[in-house]
Amino acid sequence: MTLLSVIIPFGLSKERLYIQDRIFEKIEDFKDLKEIEFIFVEGYSSLKNNLKEKIIQNNYIYLKDDSQINFFSQGKCRNLGASFASSSVIMFLDVDCYLSKESFLKILNLIKIKNISLNLNALLVLPVVYLTQEASNSLKKQDQSLWDSLIQNDLISGKNTYVKFFAPSSTSSIVINKHTFLKLGGNDERFIGHSYEDFDLFARILKSCIEFEKMPSNLNYDSRNWNFYNFEGFRSWFSLLGYEACFYGIYMYHFWHIEPNQNGYMDRRHRNHKLFYKNLKNMQTHSLKPLQVFQAKNEKVLILFKDKNYDFKDVSIYIGEIIYKNINDFIDKELKYELLLDFLQQEKITKVFLDANIEYKMTNIKHLDVFYFQKGILPDSWYFYKDLQKHYEKREWDRKLSNEEKLQIYNYLLTLSHNDKKNIKQTIEKLNIDMEKDLLNFVFYLKNKLYSFTYRNDFFQIILDKERYLIAEKNDKSFYCLHSFIYKPYLFELKNIQLFSFVYKILGLSYLKAKISQTKFYRLLRKWLFNFNYKKKGVL
User: Fold this and answer.
1) Quick one: which of 318, 195, 277, 303 has its CA closest to 511?
2) Where does the record place the Glycosyltransferase 2-like prokaryotic type domain (predicted)?
3) What is the pTM of this model?
């Protein structure tokens, strides 16, 4: 299995013919990167093309999102690609962006160092240098092995011969654990066309995965571009992890292109902005339903419970969309199978998960997969199974453990409380298992082969009827302290008392500033000022 899956969305039109050329360039550039799976996802294209054949011929994966009719959605393409990715770590790369082979190799090393395949809260986000039109043309005449050094020297020196502007965080090019992306619901597909779907996703990722010692003031403020200097607003929040990649020497480059409004791609820009601001304001409660891996798409699962409802959203990634129902809804003194069967047919249910504490068994539902679930005997464990007795048979767990495996279980048992150990002992005795002889083998089997586990109500290991779907590690949020280099651009501000900012907040002016920043007038004003300054410098 590859270490990383890179998802590249695209759509073709006669107004943007350059996109096809950039796909061809990527097909050639990626040939030596054997540790990476590349997935090209075509959304809506108003121009017929033969890119599918070209992509497949070069041993890349091609997907087509047929749900995009008369509109193009980067977010939907990214979601589709993530659901098909075979790697446990995914990354998104826009067709207009270039990343050198050396940067890809650094990313692969950081995936290993940060353990992103097992740490559900670890991630990277890439900074992006936007190139001028002249630079986008002249750079291709240079030796490609020099591109990184040429652009980075131009950026760091401040000459800006190549650089139009620099965004410390691309927000769309994120390296993240696939399970985490799917669990958070991926890109919100209500964002149609251009703008802010990546901001919405990145805000949810940071809230879920990262803890910063210091957060920016006035998070709802939008500077409207990346030409800011204060530790204020959501863009400065987004910039922190981008600066991390800068210190690793990883930069992405965005090649210039015309921006026609083909197929109404820009029409919903303002509405997208308003939707993002609304979600940002409600960040503590804003969430999406999880996405499913492609094997579970179009699957619908009924979770039947009695006395207590459950939250198996993490599990739904691998089994399908979940509907929760109380078994009492189908009981009138006794279980009414006809009523239950009508519900299953009406909702097009394909699997049933039944609380094992319910005395009724689904023997009359032979056309569906029926699983049972209950709390395991180990702390924070869940047991999902079809046949309880079969899994506890000695032949399932009786094997010789290596010294490393024995040490793992010894150390695990040392972490358990007195009550936890007592519970294990009672269960083992009930199953007629020799406590002295077989304890290590049996606990190893439960921990590694049979049980699912949660940490703070989130699953980090999911095993269903002995089939492994997710094997990760128990981790807290990734924490960045003020000593981290990511705060370097803002240290002077953070170390000095900002009396003016405090008064600003007390008087309610921060709120007013945030509201003004979200208006269309403010966006146009900031855009005009940005272009004016660059024309003044002779860059544009």
Assistant:
1) 277
2) 5-282
3) 0.92
